[in-house]
Amino acid sequence: MTDNIDFMNDGSGDVRELDELLGAYALDAVDPDEARRVEDYLASNPRAADEVQQHREVATMLAFTGMDAPDGVWERITDELEGGDDVGPSGSVAGLLPFDPPDADRRVAAGSGSPTAAPVTGEQSDSGEHRDNVVPFRRRRAGTFLLGAAAAAVLAISAVVVLDGRASAPTDPIAEAYEVARDAAGAQVTDLAAAGSDVTATGVIGLDGQGYIDASSLPSLDEEQTYQLWGVLSDTGDVVSIGILGADPALETFTVDGIGVDALAITIEQAPGVISDGNPDGAYVGTFG
Amino acid sequence: MERTEDVRREYTDVSDASLVVSIGRYQQLALAEAYRRHAGAVFGLAKRLLGDAARAEEIVQEVFVRLWNEPNRFDPDRGTLRSFLLAHAHGRSIDLIRSDSARKRREEREVREQADGGYDVAHEVWDMALAEHVRSALDELTADERSAIELAYFGGLTYREVAERLDQPEGTVKSRIRTGLKRLRAELSGAGVTVGTGA
After folding, report:
1. Does B140 touch chain A (CB under 8 A)?
2. CB-CB neighbors (< 8 A) of A65 in chain B
3. Mean pLDDT, to the nearest integer, of B11-36?
């Protein structure tokens, strides 16, 4: 009621008249100038906004038709999303995890009577969880990638912090901690391998969330290039950048703070690395069993 | 394939609100599930409004691309995802209808529909049980209320145009649309049909 009085005092229009317009407004059956007046009214009157929403819900009931969307519409949607200006490389590190290469043809139909469904790139981790790989395309959307960005930030910062702590000598405390963590019961351990290569890196995540990546066996890169470490988050399947390993990687540490990681990958990128959609060519990939 | 079935099942069990959260996290499969659930209704509404399957497909595409790009625009506390999507589809369809080129096609379609005996909302409702409830609820409206709602929502007319079409005062039509929608909601709720309690 207070809102109504305030609105009337504003001289923006007659409340009763605006209330009478709510039904027509909910059905998009008002003129543009009236629509603007109603929208101003709704902004200051939650009760009226609720009423409009209720009218729309009723209209929703009337709109059920049981029709299926025609074949091909979903494909056009994905094509449009993939055609964004800020799309990453056609091949993404996401497509490699865990292990299967990207396959544009992996599109399956939905259940009986359903419209064509999305391209499904689901995989099952060794732990038995199912998840879809991260979408092979990403468009930047303001305010909608907080989780991925936040997770990446947490992990990346940890990795950066410990870069100075790298150690290759067996007597180094970090190397000793790595060996203890690797052999500890309950630790997640994986060997990251690349197709056609016998060289592997080893990833370890301890129960305390302390992570290690021993990439000392990987060949050195040109100085314009860098190795980059990625992780697949358990709860969302998102692939996030953990950190930059440099052109001549050794033993690095990172911290997984309250975030489950199901797989790791190391890609070769142009220095100083990329934010997302890592280069899948020659990537080293390992899943935690 | 078995694994992909499992992945899809994972999403089929979640609420619309959770789907939108996953969409916000770039989960394409969540968008696919939202599409599976609601694209038919979006297409059906747009096709009915536009009388043109090709343009209705464009509306479907636009609606779901927007959901992908701006999932935060959906507020589960304000209503259902289906209502959100249909409201967008309706609004965009109306924009097209009110353009001169589309208006002509719509009017031609209306002529055809009237020649075929007109349209009946309840006959196009998909679910048999729901159809019965909607039909009963519509029966509780006056003929004037029913006509006003149908012409406004499915005909794409403004209430002024409805008034002109029905040769009734604008204020009367405006009021009938509002009271008719309220009565429909009350009738449906009374019949145990959940109407828009959010996701």
Report:
1. no
2. 40-41, 44-45, 48, 124-126
3. 84
Tokens 């209306």: give the residue.
B110
- Flag residues of chain A having pLDDT under 70: 1-13, 64-67, 82-171, 257-258, 272, 275-278
Q: How far is CA A209 from CA A58, A196, A242, B77, in A?
A: 50, 31, 13, 36
Nearest to A69 by CA among B123, B70, B49, B61: B61
- List residues bridging with A243 in a β-sheet: A229
Residue labelled with tokens 């043809």: A105
- Determine the Cα–Cα distance for residues B111 and B69; give it in Å rounded to an integer: 38
Determine the pLDDT at residue A2.
40
pLDDT at position A65: 58
Q: Does A60 contact B83 at a Cβ distance shorter than 8 Å?
A: yes
Residue B137 to residues B45, B83, B133, B198, Cα–Cα distance (Å): 20, 19, 6, 21
Amino acid identity of A74? W
A289 CB contacts (<8 Å, ≥6 apart)?
A126, A127, A190
pTM greater than 0.80 (yes/no): no
Question: What distance in Å separates the CA atoms of residue A135 and residue A129, rounded to the nearest whole number?
Answer: 18
Q: Work out the percent of chain B whose per-residue pLDDT is above 90.
A: 33
From B7's Cα to the closest Cα of chain A, the distance in A is 6
Q: Best residue in A21, A42, A65, A71 to probe B by mutation, most B CBs within 10 Å?
A: A65
Rounded CA gap, B161 and A31, in Å?
10
Q: What is the pLDDT of residue A238?
A: 75
**Where is pLDDT greater, at A1 or B67?**
B67
Residue of B nearest to A52 (CA): B178
- Smallest CA–CA distance, residue A146 to chain B, in Å, is 8
Give the strand order in the sheet containing A210-214.
Answer: A239-246, A225-233, A261-270, A284-287, A188-193, A200-205, A210-214, A251-255
For residues B189 and A223, give the distance between their C-alpha atoms in angstroms, rounded to a whole number: 69
Helix (H) or strand (E) holding A241: strand A239-246
Please choose, from the candidates A19, A82, A93, the residue with its C-alpha nearest in 3D space to the C-alpha of residue A55.
A19
Long-range contacts of B115-123 (CB under 8 A, 24+ apart): B119/B150, B119/B154, B121/A62, B121/B146, B121/B150, B121/B154
The answer to whether B106 faces chain A, any CB pair under 8 Å, is no
Contact A108 B1 (CB under 8 A): yes
Are the Cβ atoms of A132 and B29 closer than 8 angstroms? yes
Longest dimension (CA), chain A: 82
Angle at B11 between CA B6 and CA B16, to 5 degrees: 170
For chain B, the residue count is: 199
Please count the other Cβ atoms lying within 10 Å of the Cβ belonging to residue A105.
5
